[in-house]
Amino acid sequence: MKVGKLDSYELQKIIDNNRGIKREDVRIRGGIGEDCSVIEFGDFECVVSTDPITGAEKGLGKLAVHINCNDIASAGVEPLGILVTIMAPESSTLIDIKNVMEEISEECKKLNLEILGGHTEVTSAVNRMIVSCTVLGKGRKNSSVSTADAKPGDDIIITKKLGMEGTFIAVSHKEDELINILTEEEIKEARGYIESISVVDEGRICGRAGVNSMHDITEGGVLGALWEVSKASNCGFKICYDFMPISEVTRKVCKKFNIDPLRFISSGSMLVTCKDGNKLVDLLKKNNIESVIIGNITEDKNIIIKDGKEEEVDPPDSDELFKIMK
After folding, report:
1. Interior CA angle at 290 toward 288 and 291, to 5°?
2. Staple 236 to which of 100, 168, 294, 298, CB 3.0 to 4.6 Å?
């Protein structure tokens, strides 16, 4: 099998046929494109999501916290607690595990997040450290935003820059191959992307603004995220390549490793759909968050305009990151 996420069609079959029972107090269920489940608790609801970090070693704890909190943020609520599982290879030391936990704790302090529990073990089942987290968020009843509510006519907005997570990982692991491609300032910029990896602020702002749909852009890049939104919402999209917010540093990294920046892991960017994109872009700007409209939600078909031509977008495959991490 290919490294990375399972094929979306095959994964859908597995999910649909293995859900246990359906409870009435579960308002939103996880699925393709729907990273969070929402459980009703009287006047409030609990938002839950889980994800591992498998494609990075440096910044492991920081990434593990933020990619999971970003899922909760995409529901428009604030994360409040996290459960942490660490699976360490036999080559690990106690210091290695301690450093990862200290990094996790430091990021949780920044996000006002409590570590609720978890599990840690050394095992021969892995050849590098794996961190998997589950995050819980809390919101008022019926306040959570669903990935599946994008509507034809919605503007599609992207926050910050695409490919930041992938670029940070590439520079962290392949600096020797990039030293002649990037300047010292560009390497410093790429390393700094990890400080912009959270989308909790824009998630909170967009949730209060009443957007129709949100999805954080992770494995599979912006095209993978768009595919998942369209699949969950039973609609399509039409976007323009020239509108994509990609830094020059990311472009250079992608060119070096023959990577498609639109399929490059992009934690730190949020995909949002709403009726008045310009109004939302202005609101985000007032809160010092850059964003741009890249297209619209349509009735059907997934289209990207590139070099003046319309192309259909294929379903997501393995993230381009794995070209680097082989």
Report:
1. 140
2. 298
